Amino acid sequence: MGLLVLALHILRHVPAANIDYAALALGAFASWAGVPGPGEPLLIAAAIVAAQHKLDLTPVLIWAFVGATTGGIVGWVVGWYAGRTMMTAPGPLLKLRLKAVERGEEVFNRLTVIAILLTPAWVAGIHRAGPAVYLITNAVSAVVWTVGIGLGAYYAGPPVLDVLNDVGTVTAVGLVLLVVVGIGLEVVRRRRRGAPA
């Protein structure tokens, strides 16, 4: 919320001719490469300012899309080349890291597109998501993100942020419940086999 207020303040006090769309693209790039936070508040703020006719909506959407798509690709490449090496390198928790890579491979082999959508770009790189599938999924999800949030903020304004916060809370609770159920099923499975939980 603080980033959104700061972004709105900056965008309101700078004439539209001086707005640097590259800042929006950079924020989207960082978010999609794996840095939490900057892309979404900047897109919402830019779309709200565009709704006030101080900025053109089309360049806002285009630059957000370009930044998101490029960030997703860079994150995927970094995961492909550096992430896998780091996950499999000798060191602390090697067994745990190797098991995480193995489990991730299973998920990415069975549900590639869903796994790409639900994980950061670098995780898709670590698990060697194929270029054709990854690039198409990345581009389509960047379009949906840009158009959905950008047009939503343009037409609805700040209430979009409230909806996104609610969705984020529901998603977080759902993920916690999913993890708890998964742990419970694993404990039950081990007890049935006679292994220690």
Short recap of the structure:
The chain is mainly α and 197 residues long. Helices cover 82% and strands 0% of the residues. α2 runs antiparallel to α3.
What descriptive keywords fit this protein?
197 residues; mainly alpha; 2 domains; globular
Notes on the protein architecture:
By secondary structure, this protein is an all-alpha fold. It folds into 2 domains: 2-157, no CATH class; 158-197, no CATH class. The chain has 9 helices and no strands. The chain has helices spanning 2-13, 21-33, 39-51, 57-88, 94-110, 112-118, 121-126, 131-156, 159-193. The longest helix has 35 residues, at 159-193. It starts with a helix and ends with a helix. The model has no long low-confidence stretch (mean pLDDT 81).
Secondary-structure map with pairings?
Blueprint: H1 2-13, H2 21-33, H3 39-51, H4 57-88, H5 94-110, H6 112-118, H7 121-126, H8 131-156, H9 159-193
What share of residues are in beta strands?
Answer: under 5%
| Proportion of residues in helical segments | over 70%
The total count of strands amounts to 0
Shape: globular
Overall mean confidence score, pLDDT: 81
Largest sheet: none
Order of helices and strands: HHHHHHHHH
Class based on secondary structure composition and strand pairing:
mainly alpha
Q: How large is the count of helical segments? A: 9
